[in-house]
Design brief:
Elements (H helix, E strand, L loop, with lengths): L2 E10 L7 E11 L4 E6 L5 H7 L8 E6 L2 E2 L7 H7 E4 L12 H11 L4 H14 L4 H4 L9 H13 L5 E5 L7 H18 L2 E5 L3 H7 L2 E6 L2 E6 L1 H4 L3 H6 L6 H11 L11 H18 L1
Parallel strand pairs: 3-8, 3-9, 6-7, 7-8
Antiparallel strand pairs: 1-2, 1-4, 4-5, 9-10
Helix pairs in contact: 3-4, 3-6, 4-6, 6-7
């Protein structure tokens, strides 16, 4: 399933004294099974863009096609589109409200009018996919869980709708290191094992570098870069000019080059740099 964005423009408070153009002439195609990292400074338009992907916001001009369906067409069932494109907001655990973990995850499927057996299957499957033990946790109050567990319950509630595309807006915001790694691991598994298309908004260049296969950079409401991570992260000067940075591995590689080490250009992941360091260490040991 693809999402095609054509000449998308969006204006907040159009016609008023505080009119603001948030998105300007966006043209993108999100292909089936892609993992996209969406980065940009605060206010660059990232969150506004992703809220268009399932029709929560509608374009001021331009159009969005989800699996060929035009979201602006009155004949398009937007609720059906939102089942295909699941959106996880920042701090989604703040939207948990049911008495138990199971009831919270089941809320969406119940609203679809599914029978009890199908709802139960979806709840159990969603909990498995976010590494939550059903037998241990399904009757627990969500408010007794850790921050990382609460966030996984919130994500499971979206997964229980069985979307083909999962959009995550700063999924690790506010989590401690352990919770952060848990969330990143489950996102990685959702993409690799289930083939879910992922669009992840993040301020962390390291998280994007470790997961994304394609990076889209936004600046002042426009898409200014779109390509493979090694190509985007090689543009360190341009990224810094937009208030961004590069992954720590890229900075480490640059420092090693400055010290005379032969580190290839275009590396951006920590494991790639460590492999090169081990090669160099091995060669130095042979000549010692």
């Amino acid at each position: 399933m693809s999402i095609v964005i054509e000449q998308l423009n969006y204006v907040y408070m159009s016609g008023g004294p505080y009119e603001t153009k948030a998105l300007s002439d966006i043209n993108l195609t999100i292909g089936d099974g892609e993992f996209i990292g969406l980065i940009g400074h605060t206010g660059s338009g990232k969150s506004t863009l992703v809220q268009h992907l399932n029709g929560l916001l509608m374009p001021s001009s331009g159009r969005i096609l989800v699996d060929g369906l035009d979201l602006a067409d009155k004949a398009t069932d937007r609720r059906a589109v939102r089942r295909r494109v699941g959106l996880v907001f920042q701090y989604p655990e703040n939207q948990l409200f049911e008495e138990t973990v199971e009831k919270d995850i089941a809320f969406g499927p119940k609203n679809l009018g599914l029978d009890e057996n199908e709802i139960a299957r979806r709840v159990k499957d969603a909990m498995r996919r976010v590494a939550l033990d059903y037998d241990e946790l399904h009757e627990r109050s969500v408010f007794e869980l850790s921050g990382g567990q609460m966030r996984r319950v919130a994500i499971a509630g979206v997964l229980a709708m069985e979307p083909q595309v999962l959009v995550l807006d700063e999924p690790c915001a506010g989590l401690d290191p352990r919770g952060r790694e848990e969330i990143l691991s489950l996102i990685r598994n959702l993409h690799k094992e289930a083939g879910t298309t992922i669009v992840m908004v993040s301020h962390s260049m390291d998280d994007v570098a470790s997961l994304a296969e394609r990076v889209i950079v936004m600046n002042h409401g426009e898409v200014v870069m779109d390509g493979a991570p090694r190509d985007v992260f090689s543009c360190g000067e341009e990224l810094r000019g937009m208030g961004l940075d590069v992954p720590q591995a890229v900075m480490l590689a640059q420092k090693l080059r400055e010290k005379g080490y032969d580190i290839p250009e275009g590396l951006y992941r920590t494991e790639e740099i460590m492999a090169e360091i081990m090669k160099i260490a091995g060669k130095e040991a042979q000549h010692a």
